[in-house]
Design brief:
The complex is a heterodimer of chains A (318) and B (256). Chain A is an alpha/beta fold. Chain A has 2 domains: 3-223, P-loop containing nucleotide triphosphate hydrolases (Rossmann fold, 3-Layer(aba) Sandwich), CATH 3.40.50.300; 227-297, Alpha-Beta Plaits (2-Layer Sandwich), CATH 3.30.70. Chain A contains 11 helices and 15 strands. A 6-stranded mixed sheet of chain A has the order 7-8-9-4-10-11, with helices on both faces. In chain A, strands 1, 2, 3, 5 and 6 form a 5-stranded antiparallel sheet that branches. The longest helix of chain A has 16 residues, at 168-183. In chain B, helix 1 packs across helix 5 (96-126), helix 5 runs antiparallel to helix 11 (224-249) and helix 10 crosses helix 11 (224-249). Chain B is mostly helical and 256 residues long. Chain B is built from 11 helices and no strands. The chains are: A alpha/beta (318), B mainly alpha (256). At the A-B interface, helix 1, helix 2, strand 7 and helix 3 of A face helix 1 and helix 4 of B.
Chain lengths: 318, 256
């Protein structure tokens, strides 16, 4: 498998506190990997290590084949990062900030002016282009931070909570742009604690908790790996007898079945798409006619709870 | 079109921010005018020796402004770390040593702009203005500025643990370096204990070297060769210390 980013036992400690423990994950070339975890789970630390802003206490990582410890300058040539908190250029104006960023990545003269103006329009910053950074709203500052990457078009684009502080329309716009970036050939890593963001963007998801990666897979497989996570509400045309309920309980993939009413059942199952045809056959065998079926899949929060035993909302980020 | 080196792009970007605030640029010139033409005149009328103390005082004032502006350059680097600016810079394809030299060039340029008008005034009023003397004085001030910036950046590793401790260390150090030096008084007029401390202070050598270039009587100053050697050693020492700090100790400060 062609990996754009590979961490090898990556560890980061601050004194006695270890923010990241022996992390080994891979990001495939051309995918969007979403790192999902609550505040304090080590997401930001991981992204800062991969972009060489921080130095590891142990282990290493390779970005497009370059070692973050031995070849940090080469890593920085191929990586772009949008930070969680866009700060630090109080007096500068968006146009000047983007123009500087473009100059660092080789844009000169008219070409630079053009890409900067495009980015200002694309990220709805044109009207604010000559306001000082300190006068921008939180959402504008965040869009400016994200816009840098669309000028740079790095081989590996890293976003740390790209839509925090951004309104709903802005979120959707940024997500679409991130997807466009991937279509353009970039590998994308997004850290978030927003379930909707992860669901919208992810090819694969890494769940992190307490400085460790808990699991990495695509959303479908993660959902399917939670036993009994799909909730199936079934309504029959006539009352359901005890024998029929028992046979449904014994079916492969059934976690439990509750009788909600004479003619209504709620089943907790794994892989509902496999379970439903079996259920229909079983119902037919008991001369029952199904009048409606509603399937509710587990949310990412449910998955997170399943794998970590905790909720996504807690703590302070590291 | 020839691509601009990345370090120069960063320097241009930073200079734009440094000079964006006109009040701060003018502040140091106004400060000089008040200090020199009001306080300097007053104190000069009280001092018998050195004669024309106002020029002696004026050169000390230049070093004082230089120390303040060079400290600002070092401090702004540290503040940048806490405000998130350093994280961004460390993520760019610019080497850490290049980043350090960019900070030095930034500080040196800001110093020069702030110091040229006061320096020209002093040289003109004292009748020492000549292109060679002016250039030599700028070189001395630049070297001294680089040494102070290097010192402040070298101390920045303290700030990554606590900005409060860094501020306290820098404030204490600044007070000691300025008071226990020849910025205000020639070495031979000050008490023995004070003089001994002042001779261990690099600012004494920088200030006296500046005065030597400006043609002050040698009897008031340290040996200019010794002063040159100490200033050069200071520049080299703080350059290495600054480079070491940036290469080994500096990281984007952990987000709060």
């Amino acid at each position: 498998m062609d990996l754009a980013v590979e961490t090898l036992g990556l560890t980061k400690s601050y004194g006695r506190f270890t923010a990241l423990y022996d992390l080994s994950i891979g990001v495939r070339s051309g995918e969007i990997l979403v790192i999902l975890g609550p505040n304090g789970s080590g997401k930001t630390t991981l992204l800062h290590l991969v972009s060489t802003v921080l130095k590891p206490s142990g282990g290493t990582a390779k970005v497009m084949g370059y070692d973050i410890v031995k070849e940090p300058l080469k890593v920085r040539e191929v990586v772009g990062i949008s930070f969680q908190e866009p700060r630090g250029f109080w007096r500068h104006k968006p146009r000047a900030i983007l123009s500087f960023h473009a100059s660092i990545y080789g844009y000169e003269g008219e070409r630079r002016k053009k890409v900067v103006e495009e980015a200002l329009h694309d990220f709805d910053l044109w009207e604010s282009r000559d306001k000082r950074f300190m006068e921008l709203s939180g959402g504008q500052a965040k869009r400016l931070e994200v816009a840098k990457q669309f000028i740079q078009k790095p081989k590996v684009a890293i976003f740390d909570e790209p839509t925090s502080m951004v309104d709903l329309a802005g979120k959707r716009m940024i997500w679409d742009r991130i997807r466009e970036l991937r279509e353009g050939g970039s590998t994308v890593v997004v850290a978030t604690n927003e379930v909707r963001e992860a669901e919208y963007l992810a090819d694969r998801i890494t769940i992190m908790n307490g400085g460790k990666d808990v699991v990495t897979d695509n959303l479908r497989t993660l959902k399917d790996s939670v036993r009994g996570a799909d909730i199936v509400d079934i309504e029959f045309s006539s009352p359901v007898g005890g024998a029929a309920v028992e046979s449904l309980r014994r079916m492969e993939g059934t976690a439990r079945v509750l009788q909600e009413a004479d003619n209504r059942l709620r089943a907790y199952v794994s892989r509902s798409e496999d379970w439903l045809p079996l259920m229909m056959a079983e119902a037919a065998a008991h001369s029952l006619k199904v009048t409606s079926v509603r399937v509710t899949e587990p949310s990412l929060d449910d998955i997170f709870l399943h794998f970590t035993g905790g909720s996504l909302a807690s703590g302070a980020d590291t | 079109m020839v691509p601009i080196p990345r370090t120069m792009s960063l320097l241009t970007f930073d200079l734009r921010e440094a000079f964006d605030s006109v009040p701060w640029v003018v502040y140091y010139w106004a400060y000089f005018v008040f200090e020199y033409f009001i306080y300097g005149k007053l104190i000069s009328s009280l001092v018998v020796e050195p004669t024309n103390y106002i020029f002696y005082y004026g050169t000390g004032l230049l070093v004082l402004i230089l120390f303040n502006t060079a400290s600002w350059a070092g401090r702004s680097f540290v503040e940048g770390a806490h405000e998130g600016r350093l994280k961004y810079l460390l993520s760019l394809p610019i080497g850490r040593n290049q980043l350090f030299f960019e900070q030095l060039m930034l500080g040196a340029t800001v110093n020069t702009v702030r110091l040229i008008p006061p320096l020209a005034v002093i040289m003109w009023l004292s009748g020492t203005m000549s292109p060679l003397t002016f250039l030599s004085t700028i070189v001395v001030l630049t070297l001294l500025g680089i040494a102070v910036i290097g010192l402040m950046v070298s101390l920045s590793f303290v700030a990554f643990r606590s900005f409060d401790i860094y501020s306290a260390v820098v404030a204490g150090l600044s007070a000691l370096l300025i008071r226990f030096s020849t910025i205000y008084y020639p070495l031979r007029f000050i008490p023995q204990a004070y003089s001994t401390v002042a001779q261990g202070n690099p600012l004494t050598y920088g200030t006296d070297l500046l005065r030597a270039v400006l043609g002050f009587p040698p009897s008031l100053l340290l040996d200019p060769y010794l002063a040159t050697a100490v200033v050069m050693a200071l520049v080299v020492g703080t350059l290495f210390a600054g480079m070491f700090t940036i290469s080994h100790a500096v990281e984007g400060v952990k987000s709060s």
